[in-house]
User: Fold LisH domain-containing protein ARMC9 from Oncorhynchus mykiss.
Amino acid sequence: HRLSLSHNMQLCSIWIKYLKYGEFEETVHHFEKECKNKGKVVPKPRGNSLRDSKTLIIQKDLLSSFDDGDFKVFFELWTEFVPLEVRDCDPHAQKLEFYLHVHFTIFPLKIHLGRHDRADFEVRITHFKHYLETRGAALSQTTEFLPYYALPFVPNPMVHPSFRDLFQESWIPEMKQELEKFLTVTLKVSDTPRLLSLYKDGGRNTKDTIQQLQLQLAEAEKRTSSYMRRFNKMQADHHNLIGVTAELVDSLEATVSGKMISPEYLQSMCVRLFSSQLRQSAAQSIDFTRPGTVSDNTHLCEKHPPSPLYRRPKEVPLLPSLDYDKLKRDLLGGSDRLKALLLQALCWRLTRSLQGEQRDTVLQAYVSNDLLDCHSTRQKPVLLLMRSKNEMVRQYMARLINAFASLAEGRVYLSQVPSLLRLLIESLRTEEKDSVSRENVLGALQKLSLRRSQQSAMIEDGLIDWLVDELQDSDCLSDYTLEYAVALLMNLCLRTRGKRKCAENPKYVLKVLTDLLGHENHEIRPYVNGTLYSILCIHAVREEAKEMSMEEILHCYSKEENPELNRQIEFIIKQLNSEGPESDDEEEDDDDEEDAIETDLDKEEVLQLQPRELSGETLLTTEYLGVRDTHTHTHNRRSAAPLGRSVDEPLQRPVTPISHRNTHIMQVVHTHTHTHIYCIRTTWSNAFWTRGS
Assistant:
């Protein structure tokens, strides 16, 4: 195939440069002569001296601007001659650029602060702020650079401990040396011929590119998996929304015939509506004054049956009694496969039963028959299945304990076993990170931390240190682990002993908490704020927080569009600047929390059925049906936690993530209901009358 003229010229140039590099002068002469005889154009060699000279001048100008502190000239040259792909994609270049901005910002402070220099310093501070809000914003989540985002707000950085290193005599020479190395590599024009470079690389660049793309692909797949989980939650919430909307339309239509809708009914609907871990902002966006039009929702009425609100409620059947003696014998002596199936079935019976009398009856039967052998004197109680060598058995045992801990009476039952906490904490430290077993153990511990006796035991067992260490690497944790770990830490830090435990190493604890303030999972922010508010009542913690410019760091996070969290930060800053004595909470009683089972407690089921194998309720009622009545009388429980705290304040009472979400929604609804109930009824009634006419 004939090559184009330009390709011929390029190939000839490559060969000639290589031959000259190897000092094959005669070969070069004959090659050029033959090319001329065959009519092939040989490009005239271009000397690199001019280009090299220009590069040296640019490098010299950059270094001179660095020495003179002339940031305007420096960054004009930097932007023009350092390639954009290097500045945007090379981590070393990004790091160097950040510290160069710091250097030019504090440059006037290195010399005598006259009036002119102070004015110059203010100009540089403004320039640095602009950089932090634009190109520097990408590094705001990096721990190394986080303290420097407070630099513009510090009156005198020279005496501030966080910036002490910047004013050491060795800092500028080291920075200049790093700059010289970078410019030498980036601006240098290589004399190595292209043919030799191609041979030396041997496809290495291609391999590096493939490896980089594979890493990017793995990261993209990880993000896709996370987004799919969120999408599935949103889809379930959407289906729930349609059902609740149809029921509300039916109920409001009934008001036309004179039937009243109570505020309690609206509250129960909203709890049901937002119980699937919707963000708090969703609850805040409820606007009862704009209910929409009936024409938009008519199809919902056609697809869904009328609401049972105004009918006599149907009797909920109780689940059959079980032979708990036989159950416990097989849990202790059966095969690992049977143990896992039984634990799964017992957990399902609790989590999938209907809330109210049916679930209360199941729990009372478990407790009265001492399902977990909490009061047994036998050497191997059922609880020791947490130490089983079979991972499946341990996982479903942890699921069952987590289900118990989700209910108030279950927590009372579990709290009667002193060895349980040791078993759970042991499992927490030995199970693989983010395994389903460890997630359920963490969930159970977090719910047990609602009880003061359990809080005390966890603090004594060093759980606060473990949590802080775990949260240091928060990006490697699942959403469930992260949320419940932070919520557990907050519950323990509400206690005076927990606060004093944090005060033993306040710098480390505060660093971890401030890093968590910038985490992409905003569900954890209320618990981080609550923890900060609690431990800042300790004088030593306040002093350490002031040393690390905590107030300036908090101001950086108060710019987000979330008024509630902004007001919580204001409370934390007030606590930081307070001088009051340490509070003593050791005489308070246990909180009477609501029952709250997560909707995804049965997620990621890994136990796959084999042919003709029974599971769930079928297994229990076929093989373990009781011969006597094991049901006990149950008492009615309240369905919601008390509305005792303003949503503007940081959390100051022990909570679980699911109960906090429900309580938050109830508070919002409680505020809106009495204000807008008349407006709802009038607007919707008028709409229905209009449709009827």
